Predict the 3D structure of the following.
Amino acid sequence: MKKNSLLIATAIYMSIAFSLISNPITAQSMDKKQIPLEDFFKNPEKTSYQISPDGNFFSYRAPFENRMNVFVQKRGEEKATRLTSETDRDIAGYFWPNNEQILYLKDDGGNENFKLYGVNIDGSNVKCFTDFENVRTDIIEDLPEVPDEVIIGMNKRNPQVFDPYRLNLKTGDMEMIAENPGNIQGWIFDHEGKLRAATAIDGTNTSILYRETEKDEWKTVLTTDFRESLSPSFFTFDNKNVYAISNLGRDKAAVVEFDIVNGKEIKTLYENKENDVDGVFYSKKRKVLTAASYTSYKRQRHFFDKETEKMFRKLEKHLGDYEIGISGSNKDEDVFIIRTYSDRSLGAYYIYDLKNDKIEKIAEVSPWIDEVKMGTVTPIEYTSRDGLKIHGYLTLPNGLTMKTAKNLPVVVNPHGGPWARDGWGFNPEVQFLVNRGYAVLQMNFRGSTGYGRKFLESSFKEWGRTMQDDITDGTNWLVEQGIADPGKIAIYGGSYGGYATLMGLVKEPKLYAAGVDYVGVSNLFTFMSTIPPYWKPYLDMMYEMVGDPKADSLMMRAVSPVFHVDKIEAPLFIAQGANDPRVNKDESDQMVEAMKEKGVEVEYMVKDNEGHGFHNEENRFDFYRAMEAFLSKYLK
């Protein structure tokens, strides 16, 4: 945005903000300022930028016939080359294995059985390396020092487990480099590309396996109950020990150095008193640790390396108050792809020349989004009925504050997972809803990640119970603040959030005026029996965390919404992908059937070419258009 237009927009924003003190926005007045729905949910103009190892080219994903495809552009030139021409499904992800080639992943209709493809950067020689039916391909290791090889994982031999294969990108030859005995869930390579460590799951125990060379037998060096974990991130630069993220003997996960030969932590490198460390990073060129990351209300960094910290301080001077992320660099680590974002903007991509301290904007992600018109995401906290502190976010219609917002219609939006979390940043769903006049409340209920082991374990076998109470308590807190109109509150979520929507309508039939369930679980018994085959090794853990269908059958029935539709009074809208491998379509089918049998109003949308969530642009438009009409009918 140019400086003059920014000043004008700021002046308009301030005039609106001051008028709100005496004239709070209502849903009706917001209708006059509606932004087209498509602006929130259409594909980005350009995104997912990366840079070639030699730094001469950059790549990105952009729409081609409404699907996200991969493009490559030489630095300093205006013309880009489209490398892929997919029209049925977006490219799910891609990367540069070398200077001449791009590798990318794509599934079929949302089934998550990704196949690996390769294409030269001039668009020639497109080939599928893993063209196998009902097989999922994952990238294990990109082997940056071996440009013509990558390590992939496939469940080709056994649908329940992934074996590692060394793939030659020139010949297409694949060699299985270890046979998964059935319990290994992660493989760790040293800096020379040798397979030296693995993580294995046996029931509810997690083990770390190690071998000195690829010719040696595996030996178990550490076994812990799954409630504790030490997750190797990468080997130390002498390939002797590993850097890991560990919560062994502590509540909050920390960065440690681990003596993998003897199975012992030898040094704590960084820990945070309030939050789990969730990432640790290093310089491949200089062979030093650079930073650790953790998330409070927004992402934070602890720097190990002065050069990296100095670079971030320079970037902050260039880019102002936006959040900054590094999405790629060349092999020499002197040219970087930088991404900015905020709670009100999807941000932009830049190329940063470290040697000359020069930064060049290469693209706005969604230039049609005017951040001045977006709502501000405010961190909040409240106390649950049993005394637990719950953190979350409140987003209000543009210009309103917690002091000036009164009696608004509200959408309560619990996140999926459930062992995940909401964070601070631009959320198109949230901004769409606040533009339509709704306040949106998101909460990191117990079990949300990043708050330590005790907080996580407090959610075990609490689906529909204290986890649901945390959501209810947040809703009531918003009513007590005077922000929510108690007669105009809806609950909406996807996946576990969809389950929480259904349970919210069951447990609190008078609290919510409507509910929207997006690919949510309705029956814990059928959910457990229809999980993807490669989730089977985690099943014992799921029994501990969610419930055992035999030992906990009474509890699981009590918290399965499909058995309690007679308690639901509010109208319900359900959306489902027909090919969903995680939450089977039957979860939604049986809920709709039960609702109709009880005479409770329900709307149902199924998309035949989608899986766990709607990725195709036209399907997103249909879903949010239907949701907008549904919420407007029952909340305004």
Remarks:
- DSSP finds 13 helices and 35 strands in the chain.
